[in-house]
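Below is just one:
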Amino acid sequence: MASVAHAARASRSLRKSQMHFALIVFVPIMVLFLIIRIVPIIQMLIISPTNESLRRPVSRFTGLENFRRMWSDPTFVDALVNSLKFVAVALPAEIILGLFFAILMNRTLRFESLYQTLYFIPYILPMVPSAIVWKWIYAPGVYGLANLALDRVGVGQVGWLTNTQLALFLIMGVHIWKHLGFFIIVFLVGLKAIPPELREAAELDGASPFRTVWNIDLPLMKPIVLFGSTMAAIWAWSSFTEVYVMTQGSDISTGTDLKVLVTKIYEEGFQYGGVGYASAISLILLVISMALVGTLFLLFRERS
């Protein structure tokens, strides 16, 4: 009996220590999450129906005026369209290319670790210096490597970042280059978790490599592809740094009048001081983000 009572006390003591450890570890994290994530969202919801401004000491409730203003604001419409284009290009490109390279590396491949490292390096590089390097590559005249290469082969120089639509797709390319390594590694981990016996059985049944990937790998990878698609959609939809850095003027490059939703929010809130209008645009950004994620979950849901 004494040993049983001692074991019970030891068990309760262990549970208490585990609870204390959990509180010490998770409470600060949850408080930080509330301060950084939840409180700004609540503030955005409160401010969005007002005309609050950094240049005005008093604000008033304006109802839906900010939201009506958006659709008569051509720069907002352009920013919305550019953000939608960003998602429409970056999301499928990152998922398809990520799966393609992950499947290649999952086969017998020499120096696999080296390839993984090379693909992952762009992801761990900070976005600002990466965008600056790419901006230098696409700089006008012979200052940029891209135009220098065209000049050497006798082709006319191109205003890579001065054409708004061309600049948008070049920035998308930088975004995809930056994040592709993340998706390759995530998908490669998922592929390696698939039991090799399933592929061996398919090969014995005469399935081609393509049929093996289509009928075995991809169906079993659906949850991981959903995760990757969600991350790709959120990152593309909320892209800011690469757009802002590559469209700002510098000593060797003129600026580009290119906006996406997050740069529009930054411009309205921090440059013009229109916090209420910027919050209303942020609310639209949040709602469409949730709609994108919800659509992805519907597309990838298990069908009976």
Notes: The chain has one domain: 69-300. The chain is about 75% helix and 0% strand. Residues 79 and 259 are 5 Å apart (CA to CA).
